[in-house]
Amino acid sequence: MTEKALRLGTRRSRLAMAQSGQVAEAVSQVTGRPVELVEITTYGDVSREHLAQIGGTGVFVAALREALARGEVDFAVHSLKDIPTTQPDELVVAAIPVREDPRDVMITRDALKLNDLPRGARIGTGSPRRMAQLNAYARSHGMDVETVPIRGNIDTRIGYVTKGDLDAVVLAAAGLNRVGRSDEVTDFLSVDTVLPAPGQGALAVETTADNAELIAALAELDDPFTRAAVTAERSLLAALEAGCSAPVGALADLVADGRVVKEMRLRGVVGSTDGATLVQLSTTGPVPETHEAAMALGRELATEMLAQGAAGLMGERAQ
Fold first, then answer.
1. Cβ contact 167:117 at 8 Å
2. Spatial CB neighbours of 29, under 8 Å, sequence gap ≥ 6
3. N or C: which end of the chain has fewer CB within 10 A?
């Protein structure tokens, strides 16, 4: 007799279905059980408002978490950057698999690079973080660009360029890789130019805290380095008291000497959306061995950033 299928809660977007499908396959291999996708519509999917207006954090997550709490699904897959930084006691992130490429990328008309965009070029993005850093980069390099707020799925955003409404759009490399459209990228933005969102490129596999058997199975998909990195990034975000719609970029990466990993470097940035003011700092320390050590790395950098004036750049406080 075949074991009952595990139910995986996922958003309905093409990207969410693609990344949930990849996790479903991995979970099926680990558990030997079939996994079925249960499609759930979230508030973030149906609202036409800009993310910054509807509160940003949690709008794509709440409906999935409610389905978990009601027992309608056994586990759920989220883009880690969409999850609020405070974790509810009744749920646990059982796995953070190996991270995809965390960088932002640009899709432009005529396959231009960022530095080759014409004067007055219009760049679409729904993210205050991207706007702040792109505008700051343009200012420091004598470029004249305009950042335009947009929303929508990958197809909609790329469509703004192909239809000629915009000169360029900025997207996450990870999403394009997961839906098999990375060949459309015209420029990979260096993290020295645009730091990604905290947790960008990483997935979170969440289940209820009382499901010990499933937690143990899902833990086999966990990547300790990715978990340490995104924990440090999200700790920075939390210590700055910012939601995911705030203009905060962060990236923790491993500093290796040859093949030996020596340390972890955490970089953070906060900026005004016009790019006039940026607070950008980094810190390097031993690779965190525990959750507490990763949290401390983030808090330490946040404290330095706040001392440099980051608080005044956060815009609306996340509630």
1. yes
2. none
3. N
At 74 the three-state DSSP class reads coil
Residue type, 244: C
| Dihedral (CA of 74, 42, 126, 131) sign | negative
Band of residue 51 on the pLDDT scale cut at 50, 70, 90: very low
- Tell me what percent of the residues of the chain surpass a pLDDT of 90: 71
CB atoms within 10 A of CB 30: 15
What is the per-residue pLDDT for 316? 43
Q: Could you say which DSSP state residue 196 is in? A: P
Torsion of CA 20, 22, 27, 28, to 10 degrees: 110
Position 55 scores a pLDDT of: 46
- Amino acid type, 298: G
How far is Cα 13 from Cα 23, in angstroms, rounded to an integer?
A: 15
Range with the poorest average pLDDT among 3-17, 167-181, 290-304: 3-17
Strands of the sheet containing 6-11, edge to edge, are 35-40, 6-11, 75-79, 203-208, 91-95
At 257, which helix (H) or strand (E)?
strand 248-257
Is residue 155 within 8 Å of 13, Cβ to Cβ?
Answer: no
Beta bridge partners of 285: 264
DSSP-derived letter for residue 26 is H
- 58, two tokens: 């949690």
Q: Is the pLDDT of residue 59 over 80?
A: no
Pairing of strands 6-11, 75-79: parallel
pLDDT in the model for residue 89: 93
Residue 313: per-residue pLDDT: 64
Q: Which residue has the higher pLDDT, 148 or 47?
A: 148
Out of 45, 74, 82, 223, the active site residue is 82
- 257 included as an active-site residue: no
- DSSP-derived 3-state class of residue 263: strand
Report how far residue 55's alpha carbon sits from residue 287's, in angstroms, rounded to the nearest whole number: 33
Q: How far apart are alpha carbons 177 and 162 in whole angstroms?
A: 19
DSSP alpha helices (H): ranges in the chain? 14-31, 43-46, 62-69, 128-140, 154-162, 173-178, 212-218, 224-239, 291-307
Instruction: Return the sign of the alpha-carbon dihedral for residues 39, 44, 45, 51.
Output: negative
